[in-house]
Amino acid sequence: MRRPKLLDTMRDYSWPLFRADALAGISVALVALPLCIAIAIASGSTPFVGLVTAIIGGFIISATSGSKVQIGGPTGAFIVVVYGVIQSHGMDGLIVATIMAGIILVIAGFFRAGRLIALVPEPVIDGFTIGIAAIIAVSQFQDALGLSAGKVPADMIPKLEALWAARATLSPAAFGITAATIAAILLLRRWRPRWPVLVIAVGFASLAVLWLHLPVDTVGSRFGALPTGLPAPHWPQLTPDRIIALLPSAFTIAFLAGVESLLSAIVADRMFGGRHRPSAELLAQGYANIVTPLFGGLPVTGAIARTATNVRAGGRSPIAGMVHALVILAVVLVAGNLAGALALPALAAVLLVTALNMAEPGKWREHLALPKDELLLLVLTFVLTVFADLTIAIGVGVALGLLLRWWKGRGSALWTPRDR
Asked: Where is the SLC26A/SulP transporter domain positioned along the sequence (predicted)?
């Protein structure tokens, strides 16, 4: 079924349910604000672009989603591919690639391709996710340590060499802010999990930079003041050569958006006993990735951590996600200039913690206990993700995984671990 959950929700919607959704939406917005800014910066874009993505993409996904509680926005999984596209083709090229990815997702939703997620081997998802986490972590070393390395290469080994060459420029102030922010996030999540942890940690770290006059870069010092309003839509330049050149990136973006949103919907269903509609979910991702880039936004998908936060905060309908987007819009309109004071090492700390969460070190012992063929598949996907190319990693991992399943004669191409 391709019917959005919002239409079902409005049949018996009530004021008590709206109050619960509104509070949940505000809570999620407080989590999303620093995260969206950090993801946009790490992707090679500007902080404002991350907020635009959360506002427009998040609203469209909630309004058309096949899940009652899905929260959409930019996510860490896109950082690597987005950074690469921007470096090679510019922001206009990213807009073209994202629109094409949206069209691919709409086609996939129309043909009910959401069920095909069961064909993606779990070791491929795990290896790919850990690889993305490693890339994100390394990409934050420059700001986290305050290194004066200039523009570092995109590839992993040259990037590590450039960062090592700049080790003498390490800033104790930046390192101290990063370490303090990470410690605050981890401790507050343990002691006060219901508080807006990211806002508190980043806010206090940025205030410390301001009050103590620390020599640390901020959003304002590097990117200038944020605009106080949404940009006008802009249609990118399309040529046959550009479309062909960007097609692999478009398929990668579509794959990431589809898989992450469906996994997020599955996780959410298990948290509150819901049941999402895969085809409607893919259509929602498609609509969002067609419209959002027209306003200069990044690729968008269902965000697992923000969706889980929504469920834990009491969100039970798509209204919560729509409120989340509207709250971020209100911040941009009223208090966007405050974002300029955010310390970049504090935002780097947010992404370092995000990378740690993505890697899920608590599951590494389970990974090591996998059958040798599945462990090899996980490691191969990880290595290809980090040192080769995302498209190659996905293609080789899925193809090899299905081949191994066929070769072992288990009678099915489905991978059904307990957390899928």
From this structure: 18-378
